[in-house]
Write a structure and sequence with these properties.
9 helices; Rossmann fold; 7 strands
């Protein structure tokens, strides 16, 4: 029963990190997902004056990789107040320079006007969306015409055997994700199938298959 409670708590923290444990989980997620995040940022090909939205930014210790020395503006959305505060603490300098803002939202309605962003990306959040079709419609709405949306997630075949994956997760493979994106009007530009190495619970390295889907508002 104790192990079951720990697994249930981890599942909850992964979807919405909360409190001191949430800060630790956020740090661990950022390290574990570092390659996935970096791959996604590289594919954004950020340009000067871009307006960028990240959905589910965690502690956002990767923001420097996005902004670098460019004149861009970043917006981050989170359902976790803990992660919002951590992101604001870590990225205080960018907030003061008016290059970044972090907002809490309800996980369904994106609190921005139509056609605001040049690029949108999200890493390892798709499992937790309440209504995938409606949420993709929201992403489509706030993206500028011909704007880029990058969706990054771990393949269903790898995720389904993990102890902490329970009913809070909805798993995806390439075909399921493509169908959803195209149903919401996105044009698939390319799909990158990648593998990174992560530490298993016994400390050795495991190969994790993930994909990055680059799409465009048509």
């Amino acid at each position: 029963m104790k192990n079951e409670n720990l697994i249930e708590d981890l599942s909850s923290q992964l979807s919405k990190p909360t409190g001191e444990n949430g800060i630790e989980v956020g740090n661990a997620m950022n390290q574990t997902n570092k390659e996935m995040i970096t791959s996604s940022i590289d594919l954004l090909e950020v340009k000067n004056h871009d307006k960028i939205l990240e959905i589910g930014h965690g502690n956002c210790s990767h923001l420097t990789e996005i902004i670098k020395d460019k004149n861009v503006h970043y917006s981050g959305l989170e359902i976790s107040e803990t992660m919002k505060k951590e992101a604001e603490r870590i990225n205080e300098k960018f907030i003061k320079l008016n290059q970044a803002q972090f907002l809490i939202y309800d996980g369904n309605k994106i609190p921005f006007e139509d056609q605001k962003f040049d690029q949108i990306f999200t890493v390892n959040t798709i499992y937790f969306w309440e209504n995938h079709e409606l949420f993709l419609n929201e992403i489509y709405r706030v993206l500028k015409p011909n704007g880029k949306f990058i969706l990054t997630f771990v393949n269903e075949d790898f995720m389904k055997d993990l102890d902490f994956v329970d009913d809070n997760f909805q798993l995806f493979n390439e075909e399921k994700a493509k169908t959803l994106l195209e149903k919401s009007g996105f044009k698939i530009i390319s799909i990158k199938n990648k593998t990174d190495n992560i530490k298993s619970k016994i400390g050795d390295l495991a190969n994790r298959d993930y994909m990055v889907i680059i799409s465009e508002k048509s």
